[in-house]
Structure prediction request, 460 residues.
Amino acid sequence: MGKYNVKQEVTDKFSLRGRVFHKIREDILSGKYKDNEELKEVAIGDELGVSRTPVREAFRQLELEGLIHIIPNKGAYVTGITVKDVKDIYMMRSLLEGLCAKWATENITKEQLEEMEENVYLAEFHAAKGNTQQLAELDNRFHEIMYEACNSKMLEKQLRDFHDYVLRVRKKTLSQNQRSTASNKEHKFIFEAIKSGDPAKAEEEATKHVLSAYENIVKNGLHEAYGSDE
Amino acid sequence: MGKYNVKQEVTDKFSLRGRVFHKIREDILSGKYKDNEELKEVAIGDELGVSRTPVREAFRQLELEGLIHIIPNKGAYVTGITVKDVKDIYMMRSLLEGLCAKWATENITKEQLEEMEENVYLAEFHAAKGNTQQLAELDNRFHEIMYEACNSKMLEKQLRDFHDYVLRVRKKTLSQNQRSTASNKEHKFIFEAIKSGDPAKAEEEATKHVLSAYENIVKNGLHEAYGSDE
DNA sequence: CTACGTATAATTGTATACACTTATACGTAG
DNA sequence: CTACGTATAAGTGTATACAATTATACGTAG
Prediction:
């Protein structure tokens, strides 16, 4: 990966296909399309004012993301995302973010470490002022820095995917002030472990960080946004 | 997921698009297309005797799998898979297979447990006879059973993806007899932990299992199949 | 000889047309 | 009334046509 290419979006948001992809994705995650609902190429194309071609290409991508499943010659059906899915992802993430923090400790550059430090202290400031928007961005960025610092293209991609997947949930939980201050504190612990060059500690703190986000989610239900499945 | 739908392939192998997808994927993983090589829609279409449409759809999927990256209005470029990528995946897998074994212990059905037991003992038999083909299939199936048993759609999909990704490597390492017998023994340990209802033990054994496969790979180089990147 | 700009070619993006498969409606036999 | 079969409609799969963008070649000014 690299210095340029600041944020390589897998799907360009400006092409028709990209817009269609993001729109459908959003509509599935937001619950507009219900579980098992059939998505028809022409209907969606008409709605967005495009032909079937970009819609079909978007479908192929959504299928690989697991948001829809396509039965050949039949149709595309929404797979949706349940409460259990989100929880499972958090458990998987807790392990992989741990690994990421460990590797980041061993590979982080001076610049990345500095940005991380800045991020942590800036977040403290915005938390005090109760600015949720900035906090969400800083939180995003903190994890992004770790992903970049771990020096593993595969792990980076994986965690980005997860991160994206549960983005809606994260936005919601971070808007609760108590969680965001706790989250900041945990970021600080991770940062300090990385700075002191202690991979095992960094791993432990990052794992704990995701787990406590998970606990928070479990406590607060998240029933409205997703179908309950258990 | 379910009783029916024994093996839901994400991309149907019989449609043109599916065939194109698998062909290009294979060609990238086998090294036919070099790193950063540009893939042109018409060229590939002509080679496979199809039009651009299925090729384009296959490209979109390959992009999401991370095997190629597409620059809008420019082209599709091979991302390839390096030795480090494979190693990183093994590290990630070791954690997630551990989690999978833990969850499988808590959710496995009687039938799945029976099939697993049968699998382990059958593998012992074929190992003694040195039948590598059957061994590879049994190994695949052992992990498949765990994926199904863990009762997590998300984790199942993730591990299948990883599994697929490094399939070529696994085939190769399993053809070495000493590794395959060691692998069998480890499967047996995992199975016994699951059967005895000890999630922590199952997790530990599954993690160790993937790690030892990783060690084996590191020892044996795997230089020929993939570009070295470190 | 180099640098720049324009014309041309090559390639991707999107829309449309046609082929093929699957679903639906309706009529008829029993 | 039900079961079956055929005709029709709807929808996906693929190919092709056209538009937009990017790369290349070549000529000209300096």
